[in-house]
Each structure stands twice: as C-alpha cells, then as structure tokens.
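User: Structure tokens for both sequences below?

Assistant:
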Amino acid sequence: MNQDHKYLIDYKHGRIKKGLGINCHLDNFIRHKKSELIFLLGHDNVGKSYWIFWYFLNLCLRHNLKVCMYAGENQKGQILRDLIQMYAGVPFKEISDNDILTYCNKIESHFVFIPNNKIYNPKELLELIYKSKCNIGLIDPFTALNRDMGYEGNYKFLNTARQFVNQTGITLYINTHPVSESGRAGNLYPQGHQWESMLKPPLKDHIEGGKAFLNRCDNLYILHRLTKSEEMRYYTMVNVEKIKDIDSGGQLTLMDQPILCEFNYGLGFKINGIDPLDDLRGTINNELEIPY
C-alpha cells in the first residue's frame, strides 16, 4: 500500500496521528508537525520572541527535539539566561554557578544558535538550519534577511521556504511584523471599550508582505500584549488565524477569544493556571536529568 492509499484508509478509521502538544490548553489550538511553514505575527515589543522560546523549550524537553535558531535581535547569552530560568523554575540569580552551567549544557543539547553577527541571505540561512540536523528552524525576524523585499522577492523566498520544509521535513517558524497601518489610530480599541485607545492586535492581512504570506504558510499565529493595561500587560494573547491541516490537530481561535498566556514571573507562562514546564523540570543532585 502506497502512502496516499495508507492516508485514505487511516483517515477513514480515525488513525491520523496528532501533532505534538505541550500538555496544556494550548494543545487544543496549536500542534507542532513536521514539514510546516509557520508565521508568527505581532507588533514590536509584545514578547513574540520570548513566547516562542518558551514554546520551543516545552517541545524540546517533552519530545526530545532540537531547534536551530537565528535570533537577529537577541543575544545568545540573554536567550540562554531566559531558558535556564524557565527550566529551573526559580529566578536566575538564585541558581548556583555550577547549576547554571549544568542547565546551560542541557539546553544547548536542544538548541543550536546561528551567530547573528552577520546578515544572511535566505539560501545561506536555510543551509545552516539544514546542516544543524535539527527538527525545527527559527528565523527571528523575517526582516533580518538579506534579500529583495519586493513582490517578486517575497514569492521567491516563500517558494524557497516551502520547498525547504517539504524536502527536509524540518518545520520552519518565522517571526514577522505588521505593516505600518496596523499601528495607526484606526487600529485602536474604540471609545467605550474596556481597553479604549489601546492598540489592537494586527489583523492577519496586516502581515508585512501581504497576502502571499497568508497563501503560502501552513499556520499563522498572531501574538499581542496590552502593554499599557495594568490588568492585561502580563498576558500574551495568542490568536490562531490559520491552520492548514486540522485533521492532525489544531483549530482557529474564535473572535475576541484569544488563548491567554499568563506571564509566570520570568518562568515562562501559565495557561488556565497550568505551567506545562512543571513536570519537565529536572532535579539537581550531582547532575541534572531531563525526563524524556
């Protein structure tokens, strides 16, 4: 039986395997799968990078995956500090020097960092991700690439990225920004709203580069935070705007019903009161062990 025939029979009998989850409410909407092209969209300074680092840490520890990251706007040491603190479950300065190094070694067994001291063109960066032998690649942000930013350049990049995930099985996550229009007065909550005059999340059509990105990606997640709200500034709001393959898990969030990820005092996030890292945190005796 060839793969296509197998899929048809498996689908009929409900045997389609679900994508990977992180053991919390988020799994109802977002599942990690092989060979997908995923965009994360959000205004600047809402914590997109921090959220995706936390999500990757959960995936890596729970499913023994590896991530290759190009973080053009964050230094490796700062990322490691945040990941160590999330994993340890205590403030970074309360961790002993020896334990910091132990945590660091374990995290670096799951995370490969591409140096950000140069700007890469798409071909160079994708080759580095492929050679890392990782399951996941991250480009953060998309605008850090050295490429033609025009219409033809966008389609050339998208076709290259699509071919890359199809051929390698690597899932590629790309952080993006919205167009300038999304940050103007027309995108503020209206008078009388509980968040009056605060900036709304961008719409999916606001993605920099336009409809081509919506058409070519598998999934699109919009991340937002009300940084001026005393009540909501510690919640990252995740809206799922596109899931191409719902058979293997995932679904769209409803209008004005984002997934609320509560900032957990620098230890990642809680969702509906659940910290999915809780059962993954190792205990330190002579060495730290990661439960797989």
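Moving on to the next sequence.
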Amino acid sequence: MATIEKVKSAYDILVEASESAESAVKACRPTPMVVGEAIGLSNEIDESKPTYFIEGGVCGFASIIIKPARGKFVTELKKRKIGYVGYYGGYSVSSWEFAPSIRQDQSYERACAAAAGAVEVLQKYGINAYVDARID
C-alpha cells in the first residue's frame, strides 16, 4: 500500500503536524487544581497553611512515538536534531518539539493535546505514530 507521505515532503508534514499541535494547545482548557498541605492522611486541605492554585492542572509530559524509527519523516527529524531513538524502540519526539509554546509548561493536559494534534497529522500521512504520556 502506497502512503501519501510520498506525495508531501517530510518537511511539509512536520510543519503541518506542528501547526496542528499548536492549534490543539490553544484549544486545550486544562482542569486547574489547588494544592496544599493535607490534614493528616485525608484528602482535605489544611486551609490554615499556604495553598497554591495551579492553572495548568496536573504536571506531566507527552511524547510522540514513531515506529519503526526509519523512513523519510524520521530522517527529516534526525537531520533537524529533533527527537531520539526511544528506550523501548521507535523514534521519540517530545510534544514541545511540535508545539514550542509549551516548552516551559508542565501541564499534562496541554502536552497530551499537542502530542495528539501532531499524531493525528502523522497518521493521516501513513506514519505509524502514537502518544506516550505520563503524569509527573
């Protein structure tokens, strides 16, 4: 089965994936959280101690995994020094590589949105990619 990747250049796919990732980040509305010291072992926050409002919600990160770690698109990423060969195989690219606006952001939800936006475009062009995300 021929892929559409041959029709569009790897660089153009990278640009489209980055635009999709940034759009997904802009549309993302993370669930904020309040953190503070718990009362004993309960889930209740001790209101007499300092509390902090975290607009971006829980902390975490996301990556885009491309398997196998070869092909024109992965070659383009390597040429631009984007990503690395993943620990469990494939080629791993951090979500902020596609959406630089979240480079200093710790929001798990925004990272996942960026990765999902990029993956959607990559899959459209026949590139086997998926999101790998973890809460910190």
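User: Anything stand out in the second?

Assistant: The two ends are 40 Å apart (CA to CA).
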